[in-house]
Structure formats: structure tokens, C-alpha cells
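Notes from hallway chat w/ T.B., transcribed later so I don't forget. T.B. wanted the structure written out for a chain they're using in a teaching module, and asked if we could keep both sequence and C-alpha cells in one place. Agreed to drop them here.
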Amino acid sequence: MSNENTEEKVISQEKMSELLKIRREKLEKLQSEGKDPFQIVKYPVDTHTTDIINDYENYEDKTVCIAGRLMAKRVMGKASFCNIQDRNGRIQSYVSKNDIGDESYAEFKKYDIGDIIGIKGFVFKTKMGEITVHAKEVILLSKSLRILPEKFHGLKDQETRYRQRYVDVIVNPEVKEIFFKRSAIIKSIRNILDEKGFLEVETPTLQTIPGGAAARPFITHHNALDIDMYCRIALELPLKRLIVGGFERVYEIGRVFRNEGIDLRHNPEFTLLELYQAFTDYHGMMDIAEEIFRRTCQNINGTTQISYGGYELDLGKPFERMTMIDAVKKYSGVDFNEIKDTEEARKIAKEKNVAFEERHVKGDILNLFFEEFVEKNIVQPTFIMDYPVEVSPLTKRKPDMPEYTERFELFIVGREYANAYSELNDPIDQRKRFEHQEAMRAAGDEEANMIDEDFLTALEYGMPPTGGMGIGVDRLVMLMTQTNSIRDVILFPTMRPLDK
């Protein structure tokens, strides 16, 4: 169906103001006649557009009741065609004066693109073979007082798209599809974990001590208690308290908040999956991570092979596993097994032009080498294992290499997607690590952990050997939907106010 609606042409500012005025006048006239659409409280919708289109044989000649946004209209004297868009898609409708009556047809001709209408009629195919609803009743359910961006020069500006997501998903169907997939991805994660006997729980968003990650928190104030509180930066410590309590397998999918910059991979609030399983270690977490990524990709895309960042990825193959020391040696030529102490590490860092701070010791510098030389070179899914203890304050040490921990991060196309540990359950060692973190805070590291006395008390009651993992849900959605910016997979990303 062609669209001859004048609002789908480039409109000057003066013309726009006039059209907006006309829309309000139409509403005022309807209200004066006792036909205020905003007084309608419900409409008996019994099917959706794609149900009809995908199952036409069962809908042919059947009477249906649909509702949605008027996206196109072509008036031809006593009969017209229009397109209705609902949650799932669009369908054409044939509207005739002979079927709906003179008064209703006259009102229909005055409807504007963007109005929300209800149509009751029977399903048929036109001579051109297009599935159509032959209207027997048309009703205005809500008046649109704004003009939708036109078809060819529509809502393309990224800033406007993010600020006005409600318009973005109306005029850009592919955007809506991303968020349908996002919901399916989260459902897939839940199904996998539920199958494995994990219990989904909820833990506090407001905390008196932010912990579980190296990040700057947002600070707020609770008036009744007269205390400062923090928006959580991770889900970790409350979930591990539940492991102490005997839950054995728990997970949470929830929003966390980090007072950091905004770029293609970072938004100050984002969705995190964290899961903890008693009586396993970080190898057990690798197996679960691999299964989540592989099965979710298959569920969402019908294949384990996807394109991302210009690379062809196969999530169906076993993920590579490599220690941080081996990875740094491979990509920088420096073998940290041969480096005796911090002084030697700083010397080689200067030779390789790796910037470090005075507080950094050998383990920190190894991690800096990894960030400088390795991350950008990892394409296929790879578990980087055995991080230095200095950058892993909540992780169990490797028994044979106490300078290193049983920790991994999953990297794909240079980006981190998961972080997991064999969880530290020694309260004495944990206190020492917290004290080291407090010293780092005193030295100016605002992202270092604070001492959480209640968590230490929980560990003193005894926590079993436990594997734990966090997965960035937004980044996982980016991967599965082949999008490049985190803002494209968050419905309402954080934006600078327009007056700023």
C-alpha cells in the first residue's frame, strides 16, 4: 500500500506548528461532541497482527478485534486502506463507508497518523494477495497530538533516539526487535540456571557498604536513619551470605550502579547476572558460562555461529583456556614467571612503555601488561585464568602458586563478558585482603573495596568451597544481537540533561 499522507514529507517548523495546532483542534471538537477518546477505558482486543499473518488459513473469514497505531492511510472516496501497527507488527485494513456508516467514515478520514485505533472486522486477502482486515467497526482509542518522524528522514539522530525511546520503537521496528530478543535472552539464562537447581533471589539495592567489585559507588542519604547509603556496585556479598546460610545454588539478575564514565561499553546503571554454587570451583563456573553463551545463542539466533565486530565467531566450539601469564607472554614476549619482584616488574614496564602508579606491585603490573597487550588480540571466546592476588581481593589463592588466584574472565572480540572465582572462604585471609584494599583507598584508589565486617562475620560461621560468577547481561545482549553500543540494548540509557 502506498502512503500519500502529507506528514511523511519533510515539514518546516512553521508548518509543523500549524499541524500540531490542527491536531489539538480536532481533539477539542471531539470532546465538545462528547466523543473524547481519552474517556475510553478499554477495548476488547482478541488477536495481534502477526497471529493473523502467520496463521492466515485459520483466520480467513474469521472476525477479529485488533488495535494499534495508525501508521499509514490512503483515502479513496467511499473506501480507504490503512495500516495498523501493534506490539508484534503491522497489518492492512480496508475501511468502507458502506460497512462502518457515513458518520464513522467521516471521522475516520480525519484520523491522523499516530492515532491509536481499534478495528473489528473479518480477515481476507485482496486481489494483490495482501492479508487484510475488512473493517466493520473503527473507533478512535487515543489521539496523537505529536507528529511521528516521517518515513525517509525519520528518527535517525542517536541522541534523540535514546532520549525518546518511545518514539524510536514506533518508527524503527528493528529496535523493538532487539528488546524482544533481550527479554528472550534473560529468559534463556533463567531456564538454564533453573534446570541446574539454582534459586533466583533478590538482594538489597541500597547498601551501607558497597562491595563485590572495584568501582566508585553512587552515594545517597536515608533521612529516617540519617545515614549515607550506596547504590550497589555488585550482587556478590549478599549472595555469598546466602551460601553461608545453606542455599547452595543461588543467582540474581539485577541492576547495579557504578559512578563511572559513559562509552560504547559502559552505562552508569547496567544489568548483571551473578550466580554462586557451593562445592565447586572456577572450572565449574567455566562450564556454566560456556553453556549459557552457547545455548542462549542457539535459542535466540538458531545457530551458534554469529558475526560480531567484523569477526566470525563460533560459540559452539570449546572455549579456549589460557593463563594470564601465558597470554601476556604470547602477546608481549614478557614471561612474568621469570620476573622475581616488583622492582624487576617496574623496570620491564618502563622498557615496554606500560604506565603504572607508585602503589602498583608485580601483580598489578602483570594485569596492566594484560590490558595493554592481550585484550585487544582476543577474538574467539577465551577464558583468561589465574589472576594475581593483588587484583582479586575476593578470590581463593592457587594452592601451588599463592601469588595467583583461581579466577577467570571470559573475553570475546577484545571485550570482557564474565568474571568468576573460586570464592575466598578463609575469613582470616579475607580480612587481610580487605585491609590491603583499605590501604589502597587511603592511598587514593577510590575503587578499592571497603572492609565489610558483617561479611567477615558470615565467613567466620563457615562458607563451603564455592564457585561464583558474574556476567554482564547488556554486553551479552550486544553480542547476541550484533549491536555495538550498550545504549542500543538498554531501553532508557543514562543521558546528560538537555539543559546541560
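Follow-up for T.B.: The radius of gyration is 29 Å. Might be a good example for the class.
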